Amino acid sequence: MSSSEPFRAALAAVSLPADWQVELVIRPRRRRLSLEVKPGGAVLVLVPPNTDPRLITWFVTCKRQWLNEKVKIATQLAPAHSIKEFTDGEEFHLYGASYRLQLMDHVPAGVDQLPAFDPVGILYVRRQSPARIRQAIIGLYRKIGLEWLQQHGRRYELDGQISDLAYVVRDLGRRHWGLYYGPPKHTVAAHWTAFSLPVRLVEYLLAHEMAHATGPAGRSHGPAWQRQMNRWMPDWRRRQAELAETGRHVWLGGWNRPA
Question: Which burial class, exposed, middle or buried, applies to 243 when counting CB atoms under 10 A from its CB (0-12, 13-18, 19+)?
């Protein structure tokens, strides 16, 4: 019998829903039992190696209602990011508006250069390999996004008495829409894909990071930071919740690579 079998038997005694993804993880350095619900709804039961198996049954049973609520929320907010093929007619977004991809051999009339979002709802990109098309589109988001940050960040700089602030647009992975890097960098960063979101959500992202840039006292998202957000954007909590839902569906750069 392996050392984990008594723990697994104790967990099975709770009879959690069969469709849940539950994993028991033995952590040698842990001192107490803990539960973690991952994005998408997977449940981790973190167990110190010297735990009495009966304690696992008792602990998870006591946390049953909490788990039900957290798994439901995590499942509802599970990422469903799109995957691109880079074919004509494929949909992309800029500030929430829809654009259809059109691959071109030459720069069309009325367009300065490729790639470009055309006001009539077309994303023009030069015909080339899928990898280069992807790179070109991400580069366009980064260029447009940086210009937007520099323009709209100015009013927060003035009102918040923020000086010598830098801006950058880059890939921030799957966990962050924006980040503020404190001194000496003193930089607000935004994920390039954020600029596919509706403007009100990009505004929230910017205000969120600019509030950090004012150097509020206390915890990262503590009372001082919240007071700044309430002053700049009274409905920031509503926008934050909207971002959690809308952001599940944005394109994060995923594509079907040729075999």
Answer: buried
Q: What is the pLDDT of residues 188-215, one digit of tens each?
A: 999 999 999 999 999 999 999 999 999 9
Residue that has been written with the tokens 């039992």 in this structure? 33
- Strand, helix or coil at 183? coil
d(CA 251, CA 174): 11
Cis peptide leading into residue 53 (ω within 30°): no
Q: Is the pLDDT of residue 2 over 60?
A: no
Q: Which of 172, 129, 165 is nearest to 150 (CA)?
A: 165
Chain centroid to CA 151:
23
SS3 content of the chain, % helix, strand, coil (to 5): 40, 20, 40
**pTM given for the model:** 0.74
The amino acid present at 30, given as its one-letter code, is R
d(CA 119, CA 183): 39
The residue written with tokens 């167990």 in the block is 47
Q: How many CA atoms lie within 13 A of 213 on its CB side?
A: 29
Q: Report how far residue 15's alpha carbon sits from residue 17's, in angstroms, rounded to the nearest whole number.
A: 6
Alpha-carbon Rg of the chain, whole angstroms? Answer: 23
Amino acid sitting at position 236? W
Give the whole-angstrom CA distance, residue 94 versus residue 126. Answer: 18
Quick check: 250 and 84 in contact, CB under 8 A? Answer: no
Helix (H, G, I), strand (E, B) or coil at 123: strand
**Whole-angstrom distance, CA of residue 204 vs CA of residue 81:** 21
